[in-house]
Amino acid sequence: MPTREDKISSSFGVILRKSVIIMHFKLIIGCVVLFLFSCKKHKDLYPDTAIGGHACAGLHISSSNYHDNSLEAYKYARSFEQLALIEVDAQLSLDGTLWLFHDAELDVESTGTGAVPQKNDAYLSGINYSSLEKERVIRLSDLPADLKGIRLIIDLKESDGTDNGLIDSTKLIDALKEAKQYFYNGDLALVTNTRRFIPTIKGLGFRVYYNVVNALQFWSYSTAFIVDGAIFRNSDIAVSDVNSLKSLGKEVIIYDVRSPNGIRSALEKIPHYLLTDDIKATLIEKYK
């Protein structure tokens, strides 16, 4: 016969098991609620627009963690899994190497002087940005070769550093061939202002975008039908321009957005891609 102590112990065990079951049930319910809340919180309000980083993680942003077009800015941008593309600004050196730098003159935001196309690789290798972190000015090939599924957009500055001259065409094509061989597990795109060598660049496997003001300017170019689309400054483009290009199968990229209002106005135009200067603020607007 069970003793009184055995009965008490058995009853306590039953109560304990019930408590554990109730606790587990509450935990499961809590997880379900948290999951549903998380889904609701992160609903994609603009599913037809993918987000990218402008000049890696923002151009001319005083509050940015790192200088635009630096390796540090690129790695920071890649830390956001939601990004589908990253844009960089590239210029060709005297040695035919693509270097990441936005401005026409080095002394604007770096320790160098003159223009990138007028300098050799040895000189450019010793230059740093005049920023808090003093990031190094880098080659395109200093970026990780594995793109991990994203699109890398190269905004090519085609000036040779003089008032009206353009970079050497042979050196340019050779540099683009090297880039195509270097990067993998993603795709490459080129932004051009001069519309030179479009068939050749397309033949290398690059997507090509025109940097234009509006749809009318885009369609005025004879090679518009063979490029992939256009990139527009947000303040220049209207919804009608976006729809005009979309209707004929062209991709639309909008850039130059910084404030929450600017970000929302760009998203509401529903481009294929938005290159933002504030990644966090843009993701907040997109996922609510």
UniProtKB/TrEMBL annotation:
One of its GO terms (molecular function) is phosphoric diester hydrolase activity. The chain crosses the membrane at residues 20-37. Gene3D superfamilies: Phosphatidylinositol (PI) phosphodiesterase. GO terms for biological process: lipid metabolic process. Coiled coil: none annotated. Residues 54-286 form the GP-PDE domain. Keywords: Membrane, Transmembrane, Transmembrane helix. This is GP-PDE domain-containing protein.
